[in-house]
Amino acid sequence: MLVLSTLGARKHRRLGPSRRQHKAQPEPEPIPVETTRATVVDVGDPIPDAKRAAEWLNGAGEPELADGLAVLNRALHAHRLASADPRAHGVARSDALVARLGYGAGEEVADGLWTDARELVDAGPRRRRSRIPAAQARLAALLTGRERALSCEDLALRARLDLEDGRETAAALQVLIALDAALAELPSDLAAPALAERLEELRGLHAGVAAAAEATLRGEATAEGRGATAFALGRIEAALRARAAALAG
To answer: Which listed site, 6, 82, 130, 175, has its alpha carbon 20 to 30 Å from 115?
Structure first.
């Protein structure tokens, strides 16, 4: 069960009939913003007693939080479709201001309360230090126009998100489109000579990815097709990393 609550709601000022505009101050005070508390309640088998609950809490951590985020993101994806809002999106672990795991009675947890709980500290993404300067240099190159962004890069990112969130059909279709875009864009790219072998590999994966995408549309997805989709996405991402390295060199 997912319970959403809005916290710290601003008082909306009523505008007069003329909707007059007010002069903004040179250095306005920060405006408090609303936050949303999402409580994911496990309504499966209840924990029999306080001792078992304490044992569960002591052993719970990031995997349980990831399960809760998956529930929240499924709801947000459904909202995106129902509202037809292309800018509605899911959340990542790093988006949480506070993350807590706990247990309590039904009335407590429905209100975001608990009998006992603990906060999880976000350690942040584990990125190798050597990659940070490269990412910053590429950002500068993209913003200044010294390097062009490819459509297949954005498509591959969308495919990765669909794959991680378990949207099997969307992932298969996105990987197929990303692969088509990569095969169309990379051969004429400045880094193409360094990608010759990778491009040949991607061409060889196309038939399997297309078959997997068609199977998911028919509702006939297989483990083999899922494997082909995930593998192809990994190879597209590897080719894009090699391209970035070649351009930086």
So the answer is: 6
Does the pLDDT of residue 20 top 80, yes or no?
A: no
Q: Which of 93, 119, 145 is the last residue of a domain?
A: 119
Q: Is residue 200 left, alpha or beta, with left meaning phi > 0 and alpha meaning psi from -120 to 50?
A: alpha
Q: Which tokens sit at 249?
A: 């060199």
Say if residues 201 and 238 touch (Cβ distance below 8 Å).
no
Q: What is the pLDDT of residues 107-131, one digit of tens each?
A: 777 777 888 999 998 776 655 555 6
Q: Which residues contact 47 (CB under 8 A, 6 or more apart)?
A: 53, 56, 103
Structural domain count, the chain? 2
User: What mean pLDDT comes out for the span 5-17?
Assistant: 63
Q: How far is CA 155 from the centre of its chain?
A: 13
CA–CA gap between residue 60 and residue 42 (Å, rounded): 13
- What is residue 209's predicted lDDT score, i.e. its pLDDT? 97
Query: Which of 87, 119, 151 is the last residue before a domain boundary?
Result: 119
Host domain of residue 211: 131-248
Query: What gap in Å lies between CA 135 and CA 130, rounded to an integer?
Result: 9
